[in-house]
Amino acid sequence: MNAFLEVRGAAKAFGGNQVLSDVNLQIAQGEIVGLLGPNGSGKSTLLNLITGFTPADAGSVHFDGAPIERLAAHRIVRTGMARTFQLPSMPTKMSVMEVAMAAATAHHGVWDTLLGTPGARQAEGDARERATHLLHELLLTPVRDLPASALSGGQKKLLGIVCALMARPRMLLLDEPTAGVHPNLRRDIVAALQRLNAQGMTLVIVEHDMHFIREVCTRCVVLDRGEIVASCRPDELARNERVLQAYLGTAAATTTPSTPSAVEAA
Ligand SMILES: Nc1ncnc2c1ncn2[C@@H]1O[C@H](COP(=O)(O)OP(=O)(O)OP(=O)(O)O)[C@@H](O)[C@H]1O
């Protein structure tokens, strides 16, 4: 595989808790990879490590051929990789539009904005145009002037995606984009992600919802207790012994006839 993102030998412990051990992962350009695993298996930690929010104890991360494991999170965004969070927190007073605009300022540099340079004014115009377009794409135009804190949980997730996209990333990592989201909005998120992928975006998605995984992902990578135990197509998950072990334990995996549906429910 020609890797767009490559993680080699990544390890992370918090105190005595070894959360990731020798994680090796390759993702090609254009893939939509689902990152799965039981609660506490290390999925968010791996996302944090790749995107510079958590320093690794060991290992390397290459994005588009360049090492990024020593870069701060905001510099990683500038290489073309952005992310969303499991529980996006929104400022209480800023409107939806202002939050999207602020994300662009964060990506382009606070000093130019504060000094009001011509470059910053041009960047602000471009950011307003892009924010308007993205809010429309992610169905947030009707609420663009509301305080961001007033949005529903699902709408906050959509706004989190807008903020990440303000950086014009080539790869987007999403942490549980549909958890707790109403089915109608879930459909909109699926459609938005598929549109982004059709436009060339590589996606890595942490998710527990197996219907979502089957509908959206081209490949699944499964973590169990900080190790990658499987990499397969979504339709192969329910037959994969390592996946069944991860979710159900060895005995259940070998003796329970209903194991595939149990994995689907995980
Ligand atoms: N900053 C931290 N300090 C200490 N322990 C942490 C920290 N972040 C994560 N952990 C621990 O690392 C382990 C893995 O957590 P992580 O959030 O990566 O799992 P996960 O697979 O994303 O779980 P879930 O599906 O429940 O979100 C957990 O035991 C968690 O308590």
TrEMBL record:
Can the keyword ATP-binding be found in this entry's annotation?
yes
Can you provide one Gene Ontology molecular function annotated for this UniProt record?
A: ATP binding
Q: Which PROSITE patterns match?
A: ABC_TRANSPORTER_1 (PS00211), ABC_TRANSPORTER_2 (PS50893)
Q: Gene3D superfamilies recorded for this chain?
A: P-loop containing nucleotide triphosphate hydrolases
Residues forming the ABC transporter domain are 5-250
According to the record, the signal peptide region is: none
Q: Any idea which UniProt keywords this protein has?
A: ATP-binding, Cell membrane, Membrane, Nucleotide-binding, Transport
What GO CC terms are in its UniProt record? plasma membrane
**One family name in Pfam for this protein:** ABC_tran
PANTHER family listed in its UniProt record: CONSERVED COMPONENT OF ABC TRANSPORTER FOR NATURAL AMINO ACIDS-RELATED
For this entry, the protein name equals: Branched-chain amino acid transport system ATP-binding protein
In its UniProt entry, the species of origin is given as Acidovorax soli
